[in-house]
Specification:
This protein is α+β, with helices and mostly antiparallel strands and 210 residues long. It is built from 9 helices and 7 strands, in the order H-E-H-H-E-E-H-H-H-H-E-E-H-H-E-E. It has a 4-stranded antiparallel beta sheet with strand order 4-5-7-6, with helices on one face. It has a 3-stranded antiparallel beta sheet with strand order 1-3-2. Strand 4 and strand 5 form a beta hairpin.
Length: 210
């Protein structure tokens, strides 16, 4: 991931990861660079959504600005969430059986559903599809969507939980059920990445006139 970010900026990200929050002068001192150069790098990183700052007032003198990683910035560093989740699901299956695993996945879907429903409430279907696409993009699914007279298409070009979906197809079934429940209309899966297609796609039918 660091190769996609200019070397000095990656060093700044690593420093913030280790220290938590730092001022421009503290970063400049650590890296033996001029403060103006550090500010330019921080502005670029802020524009990319990797760092943010907070203003700290002091009794005398100008306020200080302390920089820290955002959630997106922290996500640039390796993590083991997927392997942890796989190990956890494997344990549930071995200890409790498939029925308990399905129950666990259902509870997870209901938790996601509740949060999504609050954001989609009161919107017409086209706006709901747009909001859902934005939520899926925030979750890392690289979504595109479009509509026509018959309905809408959502395409997921990346599966944020691909390794989990490959091993536990129940996850894919839960996603389809999630969309049907959220949008309160017919949803059909057209393409399925877990079965060899290059992406997952869903056709969402327009609701009949009531």
């Amino acid at each position: 991931m660091s190769k996609r970010i200019q070397n000095t900026r990656w060093t700044i990200l690593e420093l913030l990861k280790k220290r938590g929050t730092l001022s421009v002068s503290q970063i400049a001192e650590e890296l033996n660079l001029h403060s103006m150069s550090i500010r330019q790098h921080l502005i670029a990183l802020e524009n990319e959504g990797y760092v943010d700052y907070q203003q700290v007032r002091i009794p005398k003198g100008r306020p200080h600005y302390l920089y820290a990683l955002t959630e997106n910035g922290s996500a640039l560093f390796p993590n083991n969430y997927e392997q942890f989740t796989l190990t956890l699901l494997d344990g549930v299956l071995q200890l409790e059986g498939e029925a308990k695993l399905t129950q666990l996945l259902q509870a997870q879907m209901e938790s996601v559903l509740e949060g999504y429903q609050q954001k989609l409430a009161g919107q017409e279907l086209g706006e709901q599809v747009k909001i859902l696409a934005e939520l899926l993009n925030q979750a890392g699914y690289m979504v595109e969507w479009d509509g026509d007279a018959e309905g809408f298409i959502i395409r997921e070009h990346h599966c944020a939980i691909g390794a989990i979906a490959d091993k536990y197809p129940q996850v894919c079934a839960q996603e389809l059920n999630l969309m049907r429940t959220l949008l309160d209309t017919e949803v059909e899966r057209l393409d399925h990445k877990a079965k060899g297609d290059c992406h997952c796609s869903y056709r969402i039918a327009r609701r009949p006139e009531r």
